Amino acid sequence: MVHRKVKALLNKLTMEKFDSISGQVIVWANKSEKEKDGRTLIQIIRLVFEHAIDGATWSEVYARLCREMMNRISPKVQDEGVKNSEGNPIAGDQLFRKYLCNGCQEGYERASGDGVAKAANQQNKEGRTEEVALFSDKYYAAQKVKRHGLGLIKFVGELFKLQMLTEHIMHNYVETLLVNVEHLEEVEIERSCKLLTTVGAHLDTQKARAHMDVYFSRIKELTKSQNVSLRMQFMLQDIIELRERNWVSRDAIVAQKRGSDGRDVAGSGSGAPPSRLRKKAQKANGINLSNKL
């Protein structure tokens, strides 16, 4: 009953319907008041995770739902098996946060398992050479793994932006993803870029500047590696340039120019000269910009 009803509500969740849908989900979550193990709340959090990680598109709205649930969860909801340092059951918003952090950790460990990462990375390599892979079960399974991994990283980042996860946890994620640049899989590179795109502006503070400098030193190493595909090198270069622009996206710059100039400048780009990698790609493809009309 809970699974079917809440899943139907989550399928309808959008920013426009947020107040109505979130209120109904919270009513279901608070039914755990009558339980000693918080099983209804756990079930609902798992459903939210399933929806949030299935694609990065809706990460923000599901993170906002979690924030609303934590704010409005009944203090009577508790789990006798989860206790604080004084030996008392954790309840209400503290219990919700505990469940949420556990879910993030479990999801990350699943997504980071050697077999999972290697399967997705192997699919990336095969996809470039074997057209038949596009129609195989192996291909679709690897695509699902990749989608869920990126969805989880984006969701975790959105939770952090809403102050539901700590800065320390975010640094742990980044450090884990970039721990071994010499043997980094493409899956981990893409997740690193996704996470830094989502939370980089919030992490790049004066206090954490030294940590960020280390991360970007590793990223610059990767852009020069012969073991990293050109696609991944582009992605890494984009995140380097994003930081150089103080975390302002190209789209935001274009929109700002369009507003101030009163004209469409979408084709003009950021005004910056082509990067080393883009020049490399242009040369590889036989493109001579000076000959283009």
From TrEMBL:
InterPro entries given in the database record? ARM-type_fold (IPR016024), MIF4G-like_typ-3 (IPR003890)
On whether Transmembrane helix is a keyword of this UniProt record, the answer is no
Which protein is depicted? Answer: Predicted protein
The family assignment reads: Belongs to the eukaryotic initiation factor 4G family.
Stretches for region Disordered: 259-293
What would be one Pfam family of this protein?
A: MIF4G
- Superkingdom, taxonomy of origin: Eukaryota
Cited PANTHER family: EUKARYOTIC TRANSLATION INITIATION FACTOR 4 GAMMA, EUKARYOTIC TRANSLATION INITIATION FACTOR 4 GAMMA 2
Where is it localised?
Cytoplasm
Question: What coarse category fits the chief subcellular location reported for this protein?
Answer: cytoplasm
Q: Which GO terms describe its cellular component?
A: cytoplasmic stress granule; eukaryotic translation initiation factor 4F complex
Q: Does the keyword Phosphoprotein apply?
A: yes
Name any one GO molecular function.
Answer: mRNA binding
Q: Which Gene3D superfamilies match?
A: 1.25.40.180
Q: Where is the MIF4G domain?
A: 3-246
Q: Which UniProt keywords apply?
A: Cytoplasm, Initiation factor, Phosphoprotein, Protein biosynthesis, RNA-binding
